[in-house]
Amino acid sequence: MQCELLYQPVSTMAQIRLNAGEQFLVEPGAMIGMSANMDMRTGLASSNQGGGGLLGKLATAAGRMLTGESFFQNTYTAQNGPGELLLAHTLPGDMAMLEVGQQGLKLQSTAFVASTTGVNIQAEFGGAKTFFASEGLFLISATAQRAGEHLLVGAFGGIQEFQCDGSLVIDTGHLVAWDANLSFNVTKAAGGWISSYLSGEGLVCKFNGQGRIWMQTRNPQEYGTLIGSLLPPRTN
Amino acid sequence: MNHQITHDPAFSMLRVDLQPGEVFVSEAGAMAAMSSHVELEAKLTVQQNPGIGTTLGALFAAVIRKYLGGESFFVTHYSTPYPASVWVAPTVSGSIVHRRLEGGQTITLSAGAYVASAGNIECIVKYGGLRGILAKEGAFFLKCIGNGGDLWFNSFGGVDFIDVDGTYVVDNGHIVGWEGDLEFDIKTAGGGFMGFFASGEGLVCEFKGRGRLYIQSRNLGSMTGWLLPLMP
């Protein structure tokens, strides 16, 4: 698999080149173009995981739905030679291809776009406090058995990579992904609840440890709320 | 105060490096990331120790602003016991512009253009009246006076500046801010009756005087106006 990101950072599109027989897992709706020899199969979002039987697969797929991602996932296979896939996400912004690595990655639920077939995607309860944040109750936990497995993420705005060295605070609406070995807790931004609320920050994610964090320079929820306030109320 | 603006022009983000004793102020809700020991405080005014008059004035303006302009009531003050960084990002896509203000230099910003400030900057809410509403910039403007301070403001889209000497015309909805002794009036773009109704320009703002004018390449009102008929 080779990936080239085009039209960064505003209207990013990922051009994925696959060798003959190679497969790629894609979130439904993210494919915007492909070579004619690509074969698409729609399966449960857990179909890349061996074992577990149908019930286990259904449970994993249902778990993924909780993250706001799709129940289903599309598997693309390059047949009779190399193939090409063009992928994009909905909002204007940058994309990044991240290596899952030994430690695994955690993702804010809507950031996932696609992955290589060796990546295990699971819904994870993010703790009761994330319930109050705009990102929902669940996050995505991505793990891989071996090196070289990748994940394509999509962001709203630019992507900024941070090296967390000790501790760092990120607004929950700006989170994209982070190394799974970082510990985190969702907490209030200021010392007191009142000041946190009035400062407009509400809840933030406080990371501890050594690892990388990727954030997006715009907050989708905040943007949607602003635009929504300028539009008339829904009538139905 | 060290600062850096990244991801310009579409998705600009501001980073400031904060030293103990320094105070950095941003619009409410703009914090994207920060060192974990930074302390946040919600306040009504950009000034650190405003007099009671200023506070009451700010409260009054904030209440009116909240109901007329939809803008936030509060600003966030950041301070730190150890060197730290704060990253701030506006809501809409577009640029962030930095301006150092010395010796009483003044910038008047449209509602919503203020991102952050540091040092000796005083911000006063000015009622723009009918002019402001017709200019589609909201009923209020923010007058920022600096005596050795930094001001950051944002635009929807790219930001351009024009050094006006005489008169200059800007479409309403595209004003970010202006400096110096510039004043503006609302008028039609010209072309008489047809010009007013059919040119798509409608009303414009004519600036007079000398000073720098900041305009934005996109207009939130136009964009939502475009979205409106597409809604079910």
Explain how this protein is built.
The complex is a heterodimer of chains A (236) and B (232). By secondary structure, chain A is mainly beta. Helices cover 13% and strands 46% of the residues of chain A. Chain A is built from 3 helices and 17 strands. Chain A has helices at 53-66, 193-198, 220-229, and strands at 2-6, 13-18, 23-26, 31-34, 38-44, 72-78, 83-87, 95-99, 105-107, 112-116, 119-125, 138-144, 150-154, 159-171, 175-179, 183-188, 203-216. In chain A, the strands form 3 sheets. In chain A, strands 9, 11, 12, 14, 15, 16 and 17 form a 7-stranded antiparallel β-sheet that branches. In chain A, strands 5-6-3-10-13-8 form a 6-stranded antiparallel β-sheet. In chain A, strands 1-2-7-4 form a 4-stranded antiparallel β-sheet, with no helix packed on it. Chain A is globular. The N and C termini of chain A lie far apart (46 Å). The mean pLDDT of chain A is 86. Chain B is α+β, with helices and mostly antiparallel strands and 232 residues long. Helices cover 17% and strands 48% of the residues of chain B. Chain B contains 4 helices and 15 strands. Chain B has helices at 52-69, 129-134, 192-198, 220-227; strands spanning 3-6, 13-18, 24-27, 31-34, 39-43, 75-79, 84-88, 96-101, 105-110, 114-127, 140-154, 159-171, 175-179, 183-188, 203-216. In chain B, strands 3, 5, 6, 8, 9, 10, 11, 12, 13, 14 and 15 form an 11-stranded antiparallel β-sheet that branches. A 4-stranded antiparallel β-sheet of chain B has the order 1-2-7-4, with no helix packed on it. In chain B, strand 1 (3-6) and strand 2 (13-18) form a beta hairpin. Chains A and B meet through strand 14, helix 2, strand 17 and helix 3 of A and strand 4, strand 5 and helix 4 of B.
